[in-house]
Design goal:
Layout (H helix, E strand, L loop, with lengths): L1 H27 L22 H71 L6 H4 L2 H11 L5 H11 L29 H19 L7 H13 L2 H5 L5 H15 L9 H9 L6 H4 L3 H6 L20 H12 L1
């Protein structure tokens, strides 16, 4: 009898353990359950009297639930982080598209403005490379000089570089540097070189007393000074090819060089600026006027102003060839 009761108790106890195991497995299948229920059996089920065993099972259940919840929290945080990154990426994409659209619209507006400016210039013979700088020339003239001289600046660019050189107006020499050719020379970029070239041309026009864009005689005088350098203005008060030739010869002798500037520089610029302008009147200087306006004998030492601001051997060769013919 005692043995039978012992077997019955043992069976009940074993059944209770199996039920506990089933309950734990069931709890692990419910990852979102947050309660820690210590009541493992229904009221109709056999109670476990072994409180020490119940505590172990409960601890196991709580431990497993905490582990599950920790994993769930990590999963949720990862999901939130992914969503946050996704939103940020989408916002960045929208911002970049808006920026790109704004840049395209601004570029289209600038191109329309550039074309309008080109039409207003009414010039002939300017290359596309030179015309690319129309708007930038206009902006710099607005800031530093006067927009009525846009065409004059572009004509100098066409002659000096055709819009293909970084030093667009070949103004490196005005800073005491060697000719830049197609490089940037002393300048950071084309815009910096353009600002310097416009500044030098503006100063030359001021020294020549240019009143406006149609003051062609004074502009011719200023252009030869832009090419020769500041000493030209102190030796002559007007332009003629004879004056330019005399000054060039004098400076070649003084500096012991075969080339000095470009005689007839204004006439080459005017091929783009005002092709119909007649320079012959400026070259008709009678002997008396020539004697009165002849260059002064130079007794001073050579300085930076003696150097041409824009020595252009290619132009000089063209002029020499024309004189030979």
């Amino acid at each position: 009898m005692i043995i039978k009761e012992a077997v019955t108790v043992a069976c009940c106890y074993g059944a209770a353990i199996n039920l506990c195991t089933i309950a734990i497995l069931a709890s692990e299948r419910q990852p979102y359950e947050e309660t820690y229920d210590v009541s493992i059996f229904n009221e109709n089920q056999t109670r476990i009297e072994d409180s020490e065993h119940l505590d172990v099972m409960t601890k196991m259940k709580i431990k497993n639930q905490k582990k599950t919840q920790k994993a769930q929290k990590k999963t949720w945080e990862d999901y939130q982080e992914r969503q946050k990154k996704k939103v940020e990426e989408e916002a960045k994409k929208v911002e970049e598209e808006a920026k790109k659209k704004a840049e395209e619209e601004a570029k289209a507006q600038e191109e329309a403005e550039r074309k309008e400016l080109i039409e207003s210039l009414g010039q002939i013979g300017l290359s596309d490379d030179t015309l690319e700088w129309t708007l930038e020339v206009h902006k710099i003239n607005q800031e530093l000089w006067d927009t009525q001289y846009d065409a004059l600046v572009l004509s100098v660019i066409q002659l000096e570089s055709g819009g293909k050189s970084c030093d667009l107006m070949q103004s490196s020499e005005s800073l005491g540097e060697a000719p830049a050719g197609y490089s940037c020379g002393a300048f950071e970029d084309e815009k910096a070189a353009l600002r310097q070239g416009i500044t030098v041309l503006k100063n030359a026009c001021a020294q020549a007393g240019v009143q406006n864009k149609d003051d062609y005689e004074k502009i011719a005088y200023a252009l030869q000074g832009y090419n020769f350098g500041g000493r030209w203005f102190s030796d002559y008060d007007s332009y003629s090819k004879n004056n330019a030739q005399e000054f060039s010869n004098k400076m070649k002798k003084k500096l012991h060089t075969n080339v000095y500037g470009a005689v007839g520089y204004p006439e080459y610029v005017f091929k783009y600026y005002n092709p119909s302008y007649d320079f012959s009147a400026l070259d008709k200087v009678d002997s008396e006027d020539k004697e009165n306006t002849s260059s002064k004998e130079d007794t001073s030492s050579t300085n930076q102003s003696d150097k041409p601001s824009n020595e252009n051997i290619a132009i000089e060769n063209q002029v020499n060839q024309e004189n030979t013919n």
